[in-house]
């Protein structure tokens, strides 16, 4: 009887080995051979799934984006049906920050991709792919808030969506560099949201 | 007669070779051998200046920080003695963004260091070293603006200084990833400054 191979479990093991290596040594240091060893399979078995390093990287990037999406969706669902746009945005933004081991690894793999994406158009397409959707989702929430009179005067939902994404990128960088603590970064995010949502509900 | 070697020129050539390699292949890809070849000297000659890769990296990081400081100082001087805190901050912040080849290379080398610094405490110390000074300088400018009644109400100079640094970090990331154009990023920076400096001059 041929040995049954759980392909999904194996892809998962490969992705996890890659994440571990990428978040400690960077992606440049992650050879197919290292990843195979980390996933406890042979190089030949790994190449059954990914023939080149770029194929493996593309898979891992999609996986990371997918995991982050799922984590954020769960957080929003946990807020329940009465969540305000501000609640939803706050959960999303916190979900994007390196506040625990999982999100820290995801963040560092993202930076490692960024470094490759700068010089590789195909990877750049994927690295930037999630941003317009994220921005559109944030802008929708901000438009909802504006309709409810909760947004500060003169704020444009599209611009504010992108400003939030940029701010969280910077806050995250300086958490990882120990320039500020997670607590300080979260306080700064909350103050930004305070200003953004300083409209008066109609009355 | 012994051959005269201009050590400063040679260090400069080494740093430039390292920057070129780091901004195209990342720092992981920059071996001492590659850098020697790029600087058109032998490996032995390179090792006269730097025995290890880490020594070379520390030198290059200090050099990058020094060049960025100098560029920004020149911009501020060019503004002349009547420059307002807003003018000065705007020049500094633009100087930190990847708007031309030089600043783009500097930015990418900075990200490459960041990836190493995450796992190396000595490098992390250096990578974060410039931030508190930068933050203090920005906070000083913002305090001056507050004294002149130019700062928006309720803004704390220290917090706003760090928010500016974080925002510019994120704006820069998404310029390099082609998510927004330089023009769009600069417009977003100016809108942020508009809000920050929306106080009324006394009298």
UniProtKB/TrEMBL annotation, chains A, B:
Domain HTH tetR-type: from-to ranges: 8-68
Name of the featured protein: TetR/AcrR family transcriptional regulator
Gene3D superfamilies according to UniProt: Tetracycline Repressor, domain 2
DNA-binding region(s) in UniProt: 31-50
InterPro entries attached to this UniProt entry: BetI_C, Homeodomain-like_sf, HTH_TetR, Tet_transcr_reg_TetR-rel_C_sf
Entry-linked PANTHER family: HTH-TYPE TRANSCRIPTIONAL REPRESSOR NEMR (PTHR47506:SF6), TRANSCRIPTIONAL REGULATORY PROTEIN (PTHR47506)
This protein's UniProt keywords: DNA-binding, Repressor, Transcription, Transcription regulation
């Amino acid at each position: 009887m041929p040995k049954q191979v759980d392909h999904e479990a194996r892809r998962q093991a490969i992705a996890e080995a890659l994440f571990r290596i990428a978040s400690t040594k960077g992606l440049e240091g992650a050879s197919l051979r290292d990843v195979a060893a980390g996933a406890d399979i042979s190089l030949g078995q790994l190449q059954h799934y990914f023939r080149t390093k770029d194929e493996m990287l593309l898979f891992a990037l999609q996986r990371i984006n997918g995991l982050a999406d799922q984590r954020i969706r769960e957080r929003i669902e946990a807020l329940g049906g009465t969540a305000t746009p501000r609640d939803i945005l706050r959960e999303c933004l916190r979900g994007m920050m390196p506040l625990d081991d999982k999100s820290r690894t995801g963040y560092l793999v993202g930076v490692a991709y960024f470094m490759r994406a700068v010089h590789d158009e195909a990877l750049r397409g994927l690295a930037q792919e999630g941003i317009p959707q994220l921005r559109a989702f944030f802008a929708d929430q901000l438009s909802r808030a504006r309709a409810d009179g909760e947004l500060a005067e003169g704020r444009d939902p599209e611009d504010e969506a992108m400003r939030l994404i940029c701010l969280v990128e910077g806050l995250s960088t300086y958490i990882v560099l120990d320039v500020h603590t997670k607590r300080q970064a979260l306080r700064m995010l909350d103050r930004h949201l305070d200003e953004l949502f300083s409209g008066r509900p109609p009355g």
